[in-house]
Amino acid sequence: MDADLIVQILFAAIKTGTPLLFIALGEVICEKSGILNLGQEGMMLMGAVVGFLAAYGTGNAGLGVIAAMAMGAIMSLIFAVLVLQLGANQVATGLALTIFGTGLSAFVGSGVVGQTIQGFQPVMIPLLSDIPLIGRILFSHDILVYLSFVMAFILFFVINKTRMGLTLKAVGENPHAANAIGIKVLRVRYLAIMFGGAMAGISGAYMSLVYTPMWVENMTAGRGWIALALVVFASWRVGRIVIGAYLFGVASIMHLVLQGMGWSISPNLLAMLPYVATVIVMVIISADHFKEKLLAPRSLGKTFDPREMA
Amino acid sequence: MMHIQARTEPSSLMKVVSPLLAIALTLFFGSILFSVLGKDPLQALHVLLIAPLADSYNIGEMLVKMGPLLLCGVGLSLCYKANMWNIGAEGQLLAGALGGSAMALYFLNSESAFALPITLLAGIASGMIWAAIPTYLKLKFNSNLILTTIMFNYIALYLLIWAVHGPLRDPEGFGFPESALFSDTTLLPTLFEGSRIHLGILFALISGFIAWFILSKTHLGFQIRVFGADEPAAKYAGFNSKKLSWFVMLFAGALAGLAGVSETTGPIGQLVPNVSPGYGYSAIIVAYLGRLHPLGAIIASVFLAVLYMGGDLAQIEMGIPIAVVGMFQGVLLFFLLACDFFIRNSLTFTNKATN
């Protein structure tokens, strides 16, 4: 393979990894607060369709992104009320959110299937994009890719270096202890869940405004689920999520790579690759049960009732 | 004053009332939605819920949809009772359709009386294999069952699409991604002259009763129930959790596989890319709405089949997008989870003056 092809592959891997990066960054914040939201796929689809509709209606892709974020946050609020206020099972509620979002997105998007819009255009960053190889791989993307870089840095900083991050982790590790020292556990969790929803919304908007750019039913094709696996793969660490997202990006464009190398395999078989890769990765990381238990937020998935004693 | 108070014992009355309340709330939500869309809500609800049961043809079509929903829902009920979060009924159904269809095509020119039973067994075995891999990965490597079963849904879908584009495509089918039409020897017999109701609905009802028998009359079922209610107690009692996990997963895989092969050898009659409109996912709602009880699943699957059928009719008669069915399913599950709050809590009214 020549250098030009490698640059193209890595450029494409960043592009394919970006929606996964957005949604996984949102989910890691949510899980750090102790909440497992399996509704990612549903929120992402709603972000995709609402983002597309807003951009289609106004002709402004930026408004599409804002609308998608708002929609993602609203969707996650339904989940938050059921789980936090009514003590509903997180797994079942998350599944309900995905089923609801899949149906609702197909419903509201049925009028614009196959329509195209003017999505975001690439923005070359001055100076940086002139760096040989790296400039073309990292700094000649659309504005949302740069936003994902910035978000990753901010979240890394917030989680590891700020009081806010400490509060978030305290709630996720031991909500009863956090409650006892006066942290508003439910408020932290509401905010974490809605942040996750907004990020899922952007992730969906990336699919419908940049990646394709159009709206098709179920266009996220399981990326919301792959993101959930990615968070486990990354052991709930932002740095590893970035690496993992781009590795999955490479897995999703493997058919291009193999075609470039002159192989001919059915595209339908190659379409399985990201899902097979996800299973293999999960098997490898979960095999060490003890380690995973140690790294996961301790209260993850458990219902918190302040009336109960720790 | 209104107070919310935690119950000391879960309310068994609310367990039954909650699904009914959830259905009523979903219909109320639907009426509002239809009004907003400028459709007559009463007419829409009539088309969605009454029309599917209005004549024998529609009832027949409803039963055709009920079969796979019930087969998958019964299996999932047992899985969830045993705390095995199997979201993979869709993939197991597709695997059953694929494996069964491969066998049916093998028997394309056969007159053997064994052709149909062997075809059905191939579908069942394929569904079981598709359930067995994630089960093995969970029990051996502790991988997350929800995520692996979801991934296997996607893998099964692409495998099926690959098969109808490649090895199983009808050589005389003008390049359409479909298999050849199965021979009559491998088609499920219909139950009534002139309708599409086939043996599959009987399989489904029988599976419901078998699951009910296992759950309530056998020691194995007792173990599953204890395991679901109190896992530490079940382990303390020395129940073999691996054996239970294997049993519920293979049982669910077998039923979902049977659902898949019954679709291709029943109403469809060949292998096509879109075997299932998401029956395996809807079965999650069947299981919950039926309170994880096999007989409850029968009632719940009727409701969901009516909704599917009503969605078809609403699209034809009122121009309402078919996607409304999926959305209603999500809303229904939301309302159910919300109503279940009152299984664990009660509303009490106290007169402020007497305090």
UniProtKB/TrEMBL annotation, chain A:
<feature type="transmembrane region" description="Helical">
    <location>
        <begin position="272"/>
        <end position="290"/>
    </location>
</feature>
<protein>
    <submittedName>
        <fullName>ABC transporter permease</fullName>
    </submittedName>
</protein>
<keyword id="KW-1133">Transmembrane helix</keyword>
<keyword id="KW-0472">Membrane</keyword>
<keyword id="KW-0812">Transmembrane</keyword>
<feature type="transmembrane region" description="Helical">
    <location>
        <begin position="65"/>
        <end position="84"/>
    </location>
</feature>
<feature type="transmembrane region" description="Helical">
    <location>
        <begin position="42"/>
        <end position="59"/>
    </location>
</feature>
<feature type="transmembrane region" description="Helical">
    <location>
        <begin position="245"/>
        <end position="266"/>
    </location>
</feature>
<feature type="transmembrane region" description="Helical">
    <location>
        <begin position="91"/>
        <end position="113"/>
    </location>
</feature>
<feature type="transmembrane region" description="Helical">
    <location>
        <begin position="6"/>
        <end position="30"/>
    </location>
</feature>
<dbReference type="GO" id="GO:0005886">
    <property type="term" value="C:plasma membrane"/>
</dbReference>
<feature type="transmembrane region" description="Helical">
    <location>
        <begin position="190"/>
        <end position="209"/>
    </location>
</feature>
<dbReference type="Pfam" id="PF02653">
    <property type="entry name" value="BPD_transp_2"/>
</dbReference>
<keyword id="KW-1003">Cell membrane</keyword>
<feature type="transmembrane region" description="Helical">
    <location>
        <begin position="133"/>
        <end position="159"/>
    </location>
</feature>
<dbReference type="GO" id="GO:0022857">
    <property type="term" value="F:transmembrane transporter activity"/>
</dbReference>
<dbReference type="InterPro" id="IPR001851">
    <property type="entry name" value="ABC_transp_permease"/>
</dbReference>
From TrEMBL, chain B:
<feature type="transmembrane region" description="Helical">
    <location>
        <begin position="145"/>
        <end position="164"/>
    </location>
</feature>
<dbReference type="GO" id="GO:0005886">
    <property type="term" value="C:plasma membrane"/>
</dbReference>
<feature type="transmembrane region" description="Helical">
    <location>
        <begin position="320"/>
        <end position="343"/>
    </location>
</feature>
<feature type="transmembrane region" description="Helical">
    <location>
        <begin position="92"/>
        <end position="108"/>
    </location>
</feature>
<dbReference type="GO" id="GO:0022857">
    <property type="term" value="F:transmembrane transporter activity"/>
</dbReference>
<protein>
    <submittedName>
        <fullName>ABC transporter permease</fullName>
    </submittedName>
</protein>
<keyword id="KW-0812">Transmembrane</keyword>
<feature type="transmembrane region" description="Helical">
    <location>
        <begin position="114"/>
        <end position="133"/>
    </location>
</feature>
<dbReference type="InterPro" id="IPR001851">
    <property type="entry name" value="ABC_transp_permease"/>
</dbReference>
<keyword id="KW-1003">Cell membrane</keyword>
<feature type="transmembrane region" description="Helical">
    <location>
        <begin position="62"/>
        <end position="80"/>
    </location>
</feature>
<feature type="transmembrane region" description="Helical">
    <location>
        <begin position="281"/>
        <end position="308"/>
    </location>
</feature>
<feature type="transmembrane region" description="Helical">
    <location>
        <begin position="197"/>
        <end position="215"/>
    </location>
</feature>
<keyword id="KW-1133">Transmembrane helix</keyword>
<keyword id="KW-0472">Membrane</keyword>
<dbReference type="Pfam" id="PF02653">
    <property type="entry name" value="BPD_transp_2"/>
</dbReference>
<feature type="transmembrane region" description="Helical">
    <location>
        <begin position="244"/>
        <end position="261"/>
    </location>
</feature>
